[in-house]
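Re: beginner question about structure tokens

> Can someone show what the tokenized structure looks like for a real chain? I only ever see the sequence side.

Sure, here's an example I had lying around. Input first:
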Amino acid sequence: MSSKKVALFGWHPDVVNYEKWPGMSAEKLRAALEGDRANLLSLGYEVDLHYIRDGDTAYDAASAALADTNYDCVLIGAGVRRDDDHFLTFEKLVNAVHKAAPQATICFNTNPSDTADAIKRWT
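And the corresponding structure tokens:
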């Protein structure tokens, strides 16, 4: 059996407003995301990290990222989903996944430490 292919979407660590996330920094977020990726790889998943840089380009960036790969599951990170200032970006990402990867399940984490649990729920 081939491994499941997953895409992780979230803010690029360099564009996050860390005032909203006390105790977090670009370095910590980058390490957490790479840790998620390494954990998923160790569980046998194929993993691609896709960073978004702003809400205006999120739909096009996600659509392009999903165009050439047949993903089994797409995760949209909590940093996009849980920040009320970015609900339109979240909506754009959901619709990009719906259109560009209709075969993929969609899942959500609550923070970087439970990404694998979210992926496992839907693969």
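Each token stands for a local structural state, so reading them left to right follows the chain. The chain has one domain: 5-122.
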